[in-house]
Amino acid sequence: MNAQGTEPTDTPAVDVRCQNAPTARVRLADRHFPDEHGTGFAVELRAEGLRARLDSVIAW
């Protein structure tokens, strides 16, 4: 493990957690580039009683 706490094979991701509900999480992962101007990623939502994933969200 390197100094940042990730393995070299880990996929980069961003986790956003709620201070008031620590089990709630939004994760942006699996980044890809659909064209020269866009960025795509998967969005995972987790909370008590909720687990959802959008596989391809694209932003330009």
UniProtKB/TrEMBL annotation:
A Pfam match is DUF6228
Which InterPro entries does the UniProt record give? DUF6228 (IPR046196)
What domain of life does the native source organism fall in? Answer: Bacteria
Its recorded name reads: DUF6228 family protein
Organism (species):
Kitasatospora cathayae
